[in-house]
Write a structure and sequence with these properties.
Shape: globular
Largest sheet: 2 strands, antiparallel
Strand order of the largest sheet: 1-2
Mean pLDDT: 91
Distance between the termini: 18 Å
Strand content: 5-15%
């Protein structure tokens, strides 16, 4: 089933852009995101909102199932899947 995406609030867009410019479609961890965003506050809410809007995929780390691995979807893909 294809994933539909939703528009993002401006504060999420700016954080998404920082991560996209750093990682693109490569996988990254919470710690790596924390370093790029220069703050740990609100990252859980940010990732949750991105996931609900369909802009990020989250999987469990194969080596440590307590950890999660994140992968951003490209802006082009997200815009193409956006419903009016």
């Amino acid at each position: 089933m294809p994933i539909n995406t939703k528009p993002l609030p401006k504060w999420i867009q700016s954080r998404y852009a920082l991560l996209w410019n750093t990682f693109g479609e490569r996988e990254f961890t919470f710690k790596q995101a924390e370093t790029v965003l220069k703050s740990g506050s609100g990252i859980n809410v940010f990732f949750s909102d991105l996931r609900k809007a369909g802009w990020i995929s989250v999987t469990l780390d194969e080596r440590d199932t307590r950890m999660r691995v994140y992968r951003l979807r490209s802006p082009q893909e997200c815009f193409a899947r956006m419903k009016p």
